[in-house]
Amino acid sequence: QKEVEQNSGPLSVPEGAIASLNCTYSDRGSQSFFWYRQYSGKSPELIMSIYSNGDKEDGRFTAQLNKASQYVSLLIRDSQPSDSATYLCAVDTGNQFYFGTGTSLTVIP
Amino acid sequence: GAGVSQSPSNKVTEKGKDVELRCDPISGHTALYWYRQSLGQGLEFLIYFQGNSAPDKSGLPSDRFSAERTGGSVSTLTIQRTQQEDSAVYLCASSQRQGRDVFGPSTIYFGEGSWLTVV
Predict the structure, then answer these.
(1) What does the alpha-carbon distance between residue B119 and residue B114 come to, in Å, rounded to a whole number?
(2) B108 CB within 8 Å of a chain A CB
(3) Residue A84 pLDDT exceeds 70
(4) Which site in A101, B12, B13, B113 is 20 to 30 Å from A2, CA atoms measured?
(5) Which pLDDT does position B110 carry in this prediction?
(6) Measured between beta carbons, which residues in chain A are less than 8 angstroms from residue B107?
(7) Is the peptide bond before B55 cis (omega within 30 degrees of 0)?
């Protein structure tokens, strides 16, 4: 079992819609959770971090964490074509950072 | 520095030659990570440093790969006798510390990568 699992997609949504990205992790002792965005040919950039159960909102982005279910998600509201990228879920277990393989998102104008 | 700095940004080398890739982490960051990403693929963990020591070298693909970190700062990833399958972007990242402590969680930041092409 991989430490972090994501649906590889591709996920396509129309412009203005809500994009929902999901991630599960295996280590119950995991402490911190992150979402990175990676444009083609670029390095990953941090867009959200979440540490406590519940929702955390930042502009059009909302991260959701459920430690009991070992599940973290990212919602992107009012999706824009510029949101088209690969989204990486990352988990810090306290010993190591683990990355998922990423979900490719395409926002269709 | 302000961000993670990597050099060279691009490197084309002949098969069989050795290459060195350099990473200068964010000032004050004690943890440093090397990842590899082949075209269209996910991140492949190579090695992680805490200070100058490497608690986890499990991701190094073969004994042709080695890495060191000196002075708790700059790290060098060396690939000996390069092969065409080594062609990829090599990403370095750093964080203030590994894991969570009394100051809270830590976040990992990436450099722009070193694009290696072996011909």
Answers:
(1) 16
(2) yes
(3) yes
(4) B113
(5) 96
(6) 32, 34, 46, 49
(7) no
pLDDT tens-digit readout, A47-80: 999 999 999 999 999 999 999 999 999 999 999 9
Distance CA B39, CA B46 (A): 16
Nearest chain A residue to B101 by CA: give it: A94
* Bridge partners, residue B31, by sequence: B50, B95
DSSP string, B26-94: PTT--EEEEEEE-TT---EEEEEEETTEEEE-TT--STTEEEEE-TTS-EEEEE-S--GGG-EEEEEEE
Residue type present at position B93: A
Instruction: Report, as an integer, the average pLDDT of B65-70.
Output: 95
Cα–Cα distance list, B109 to A10, B57, B85, B87 (Å):
25, 20, 26, 23
